[in-house]
Design a protein that fits this description.
- The structure is a single chain.
- By secondary structure, the chain is mostly helical.
- The protein is elongated and about 45 Å long.
């Protein structure tokens, strides 16, 4: 878990008042790395 003490609620929402692009980019990058390492795709056809 990562904490972004400088970020407010909704920090990843670019249309919100609490948007924090630095925290949002960092969080999204860490999220995609985590998901790629823990989820598998299955070939359906």
């Amino acid at each position: 878990m990562n904490c972004y003490s400088e970020a407010k609620h909704g920090f990843a929402n670019p249309s919100g008042t609490g948007y924090n692009p630095i925290a949002a980019e960092d969080a999204w990058g860490k999220t995609t790395v985590f998901l790629a390492g823990h989820l598998q795709s299955e070939q359906l056809f």
